[in-house]
Amino acid sequence: MSIPQSFIQELLNRVDVVDVVGRYVQLKKGGANFMGLCPFHGEKSPSFSVSPTKQFYHCFGCGANGNAIGFLMEHAGMNFVEAVKDLAQQVGLQVPEDDVSPQERERAAQQRQKQSTLNDVLEKAAQAYIKQLKGSTRAIDYLKGRGLSGEIAKTFGLGYAPEGWRSLASVFPDYTDALLVESGMVIAHEDEKGQDGEAKRYDRFRDRIMFPIRNVKGEFIGFGGRVLDKGEPKYLNSPETPVFSKGRELYGLFEARTAIRQHGYALVTEGYMDVVALAQLGFANAVATLGTACTPDHVHKLFRFTDAVVFSFDGDGAGRRAARKALDAALPLATDTRSVKFLFLPTEHDPDSYIRAHGADAFANFVKQAVPLSKFLIDAASADCDLSSAEGRARLSSQARPLWSALPDGALKRQLLSELAQHIGIGTSDLQQLWQHAAPGPRAPRSERAPERHAPPAGGHTPTEAQHPHLASDGGYTQTASDPADNNNWSSGSNNRPSRSWGTGGKGSWRKGPPPPPRMLGTSRAGTAPEARMLGLLFTNAAAWDRLSSEDHQLLARSAAPFGPLFIWFEMQFHEHGAQSWAVLREALRGHPHESAVIAEVDYVLLGANPETENELLDGAIDQLRSEELKRESHALSVSAATDRTALERLRAVNARLLEVNERIKARSASHPV
Predict the structure, then answer these.
(1) Rounded to an integer, what distance in angstroms lies between the CA atom of residue 161 and that of residue 168?
(2) Which of 235-239, 257-261, 439-443 is least confident?
């Protein structure tokens, strides 16, 4: 959006840079100016000066200087528009938005007010938890046992949620306030009513050490709670709310901003306790993802504060999978001026235990020896490749191409092309020519093609019992739907749902009937939503999840129910246990509210899918979803592109990608006509 210069000038006349800087830096009067420790570099004596008359800040140590807007951009990691809006809200000004209707402006104002109110609710809860911690000997002993001091607990605002079911009722006078549910602090069971007819309510967090989560402005947006003793889940996070999104926020970033600049890099760890313990042991530049895989939003936010990021992971299989997702997220942002590295700790250590065992200097040296992105990219592309054979080197070429393509143009990308060519055993120009003439590959990085599970059915028809012995337990099992075109929505209770599911007897029985219609190879049910196809393909071949990028994972998670919640559930299972068979996943699904939706799609895949084309079906489904999302984004951008240069550039990029995706869909349709 374009903001008039006249408004910027009026805004700077209204705000006081001393108040703005004072929110983040402790200032003391020193003559005509205010002095404090510079937040942009480490120092022991104040050299950071803020002038109320000039409305300007300046550090005599590192040279940092600017006005109130510049300070928020540099210190809080905001972009220009975010900084202007933040300051305007403080002084009660409305940022001019000529291309926004009065109705949209009103809705935005209401949304800002709602977010501010939710922040206040969460801050009030945080203060209550801090007070509870001071009075709980058991909770204090637990933190001391983990080696944490009272000072570090105060820095991070650690607290304690008591054991009671409704402890927050003593904090908030109206425990039935809808804001308590919307903020994620209270759970309301609409299907359980009390004597007053109201839904039963209780605190989400009980008997847990509380880690408040703050955004880069210091506002409270959520919590993470850890059990003191044994219990599941070990960590419990706030749900997604209007002020909190796990895919965009990082725990400890607010507290780590200055240390990140002092150390010269951000250290991304896997848990809350890692961040707090590392801060106490001299590594206050640590942050953590919030119970989810690293996303491009996480990486982009970190690069607002530093040009160097080190991801720290356990050396086990789960750690390697998490590192691979971080690689996928970082590749598009890995310019020549940025550094991305991967640190793999010994399996018996986390960062806290490693420092306590070997010392801070040893850990610092370990960080310096972290694997650069370029090497990890080659390692990821080489997974399961026998480089002593031509076939293995060809596989490396196939797996390296989408990873290399995700990198932005520059010297790093060109050097990697040469290194990959050496590993593959062909010339650089030959490799580049090969990749340029290859059919369009996946949209983003993947580690390997999903393994095939069984032989393809003969003749392009439904698999026989000989081909699939696991189906031969009660004769010829078939669905009772009269027309495959009626099976578009197989949700629980749908009249169109075929009468079949796993198990024996009752709900889990199969019914005999006429044989299902033959299915052409490489095709799927006419009219079936791509999200539904993805369910069946992924749950029957979980290893295929690694073929998708983190961007694809986020796209699936945003799908409407029942699909979005199911894909989120699937990713959590994969992250914890790796690729599991359908039999194992089936048992884990029992009791899930959307269990029937998965069963319907899995049944269809097991009865009629061609394993030779499953990877292609997977790519086709994700392409359809991506196309639909890009169309929506293009339509939204077209409204503002006429007056906003940034929106116009984004629109061009979106349309170019939409054309690429649609070309793949078109080529796939031509190869496999229905």
Answers:
(1) 9
(2) 439-443
**256 closest CA partner among 279, 239, 222:** 279
Alpha helices (runs of H) in 407-504, residue ranges in sequence order: 411-424, 428-437
Residue from 252, 167, 156 nearest 210 by CA: 156
Residue keyed to tokens 């392409």: 623
Closest Cα partner for 337 from 315, 309, 363, 313?
A: 309
- Strand extents, DSSP E, 198-307: 199-203, 208-214, 220-227, 235-237, 266-269, 286-288
Q: Over the range 51-88, which residues count as b (16 or more CB within 10 Å of their CB) and which as e?
A: eeeebbbbbebeebbebbbbbbbbbbbbeeeebbbbbb
The phi, psi pair for 272, rounded to 5°, reads -60, -50
Burial grade of 575 (CB within 10 A; 0-12, 13-18, 19 or more): middle
Helix (H, G, I), strand (E, B) or coil at 397: helix
The per-residue pLDDT for range 389-414, each reduced to its tens digit, is: 999 999 999 999 999 999 998 999 99
pTM: 0.60
pLDDT band at 145 (very low <50, low <70, confident <90, very high): very high
Q: Which helix (H) or strand (E) holds 301?
A: helix 296-302
Q: In this structure, are residues 351 and 363 in contact, taking their beta carbons and an 8 Å threshold?
A: yes
User: What is the average per-residue pLDDT within 28-37?
Assistant: 88
Strand 33-36 with 48-51, pairing: antiparallel
For 474-508, b where at least 16 C-beta lie within 10 A, e where not — what string?
eeebbbebeebebbeebeeeeeebbebbeeeeeee
Q: Map tokens 């602090």 to a residue.
A: 185
Rounded Cα–Cα distance for residues 179 and 185 (Å): 9
The pLDDT of residue 99:
60
Question: Are the beta carbons of 608 and 570 closer than 8 angstroms?
Answer: no
The Cβ of residue 555 has, within 10 Å, a number of other Cβ atoms equal to: 21
- Measured CA to CA, the distance from residue 543 to residue 611 in angstroms comes to 13
Residues 6+ away with beta carbon under 8 Å from 409: none
* Count of CA atoms in the C-beta half-sphere (13 A) of 484: 18
Mean pLDDT of the 22-26 span: 88
184 within 8 A of 204, measured Cβ to Cβ: yes
Asked if pLDDT for residue 470 goes beyond 60, the answer is no
Contact at 8 Å (CB) between 549 and 445?
yes
Instruction: Assess whether pLDDT exceeds 90 at residue 496.
Output: no
pLDDT in the model for residue 551: 73
